[in-house]
Design goal:
Strand order of the largest sheet: 1-2
Oligomer: single chain
Number of helices: 4
Structural class: mainly alpha
CATH class of the domain at 18-130: Mainly Alpha
Distance between the termini: 69 Å
Largest sheet: 2 strands, antiparallel
Radius of gyration: 24 Å
Strand content: under 5%
Number of strands: 2
Shape: flat
CATH topology of the domain at 18-130: Four Helix Bundle (Hemerythrin (Met), subunit A)
């Protein structure tokens, strides 16, 4: 009886360990095979938004050569912004929060976000310059669709009028 109970415990432990290992491996695979575009679209690392356009092979090659270092820089800047956001939360957790330090950190975050937005716009304008007129229209339609699809609301919300108290 003890022998069969021990075997059951070993098999159950083995199944649990294999399941945990497989789950961790799968999550790691999912995280490392995707990239989030500046518009919030999650894509595979070897896929690019502009591949949905009708581009000539030389245009695709030129855009990829510019997009890969751009992605790396965007990721680096996102990490820097995330670090500042964590710093902001740490400052707010304090028993007596330093409002000047909080304001300075908010200003730093805003500055980094503005720099990143300028970088994205510069990159988009550089990409636009290598496209013909029809491709440019499709390019910006694609960007607009991706922004709207991923939470970037492209229209103002309807007005609800003044708040009413009950």
């Amino acid at each position: 009886m003890k022998n069969s109970l021990l075997k059951f415990a070993l098999v159950a432990s083995l199944i649990l360990n294999v399941t945990v290992f497989a789950t961790v491996g799968y999550h790691h695979y999912q995280q490392t095979r995707s990239w989030t575009s500046p518009f919030g679209k999650v894509m595979e690392k070897d896929k690019f938004v502009f591949e949905e356009l009708s581009l000539k092979p030389e245009q695709v090659a030129a855009m990829k050569s510019k997009a890969i270092p751009f992605r790396a820089e965007i990721d680096r800047r996102r990490c820097a912004i995330d670090a500042k956001k964590k710093e902001l939360v740490t400052l707010m957790r304090s028993q007596n929060p330093d409002k000047k330090a909080i304001d300075a950190t908010i200003k730093e975050i805003s500055g980094k976000q503005e720099e990143m937005q300028r970088m994205v716009v510069g990159h988009m304008l550089e990409m636009k310059s290598s496209l013909d007129e029809g491709q440019q229209r499709k390019f910006f339609d694609l960007i607009e669709r991706n922004m709207a699809r991923n939470g970037g609301q492209m229209t103002c919300p309807p007005e609800h009028g003044p708040m009413q108290s009950n």
